[in-house]
Amino acid sequence: MPIKMKSILGLSFLLVGGCSQLHHVHIGDIDQSQGSLTPFTITVNELGFDAAKAAEIGAGAAKSASTSEDLELVAFILAISNFGPKTGNPVYNDAYADEVLSEVIKACPSKKMTGLTSIREATNVGPVSGEVVRIKGFCINLI
Amino acid sequence: MKKLFVLLNVVMLSACTSSVHMSQVDVGNNAYNENDIGKIIEIEKSQKNILGFVYNTNYVDQAYKNLLRQCPNGTSMINVEYLTNHGFLSWTDKIRIKAICR
Fold first, then answer.
1. Does A43 touch chain B (CB under 8 A)?
2. Prediction ipTM score
3. Domain range spanning residue A143?
4. Which of A16, A60, A120, B1 is the most interior residue, by most CB within 10 Å?
């Protein structure tokens, strides 16, 4: 019974603990002089996973001391194998944001746009996250 | 057998993770933007870091000079992406520029 309660509590914390985090934002010039504006949003995202953190959590939750030690070793190997600065959790595809420029161009039939806002954010649930690049802006409807 | 399986998983999970720090799109003055969108040029420059020791510290300047050379009349739209590829006790910083020349 106590184990069941612990599992429910743990799951609840994971679900409730999912939160958004803003890493970077950039706002460009806004020009309202050339016509009416129509807003658009482009969003690309990728699954982020911190394997070292997951192994550390596993080590903490392991029942036997030997399993815990093994998982700590795994966490250490993962940490030194994925060395370097990180914004959010690491992803396994570095090209997920490569198409934002062509998507922005496609979004405006007039090919004229203004007020571009670039946002880098993440939604975190423990060692798993959604790593997001969002571009918001306005298409200029030529008069 | 179990340890081998764990080791294999560790090797697979440690394969080339990355982190995108910033991706920003900017547009030039619309008065200069013609409706025909030309070819998108792509520039990528990188910097290798081994345990904090850095080679090629002017990689962003190189990317910028390359952009000026490829777009002598300026750009009408630009996307700058800054990311890191992680490795074993080392990492590679990259700057990726995509632009439409005027």
1. no
2. 0.81
3. 16-49+89-143
4. A120
Give residues 18 to 57 of B whose Cβ lies within 8 Å of A.
18-27, 30, 33, 35-37, 40, 49
- The reply to whether A63 and A109 lie within a common domain is no
The answer to whether B6 faces chain A, any CB pair under 8 Å, is: yes
Per-residue tokens: A34: 């050339």
Q: Does B58 touch chain A (CB under 8 A)?
A: no
Identify the residue among B14, B23, B89, B95 best suited for mutation to test binding to A, counting A beta carbons within 10 A and taking the highest: B23
Amino acid sitting at position A26: H
Q: Do B91 and A83 touch (CB under 8 A)?
A: yes
In a domain, A109, yes or no: yes
Q: Is the entire prediction scored with pTM above 0.90?
A: no
What is the number of domains present in chain A? 2
The answer as to whether A23 is a domain residue is: yes
Q: HEC states along chain B?
A: CHHHHHHHHHHHHCCCCEEEEEEEEEECCCCCCCCCCCCEEEEEEEEEEECCEECCCCHHHHHHHHHHHHCCCCEEEEEEEEEEEEECCEEEEEEEEEEEEC
Question: Tens of pLDDT along chain A (143 residues)?
Answer: 456 777 777 666 666 666 889 999 999 988 888 888 999 999 999 999 988 888 888 888 878 888 888 888 888 888 888 889 999 999 999 999 999 998 998 898 778 899 999 999 999 988 899 999 999 999 988 76
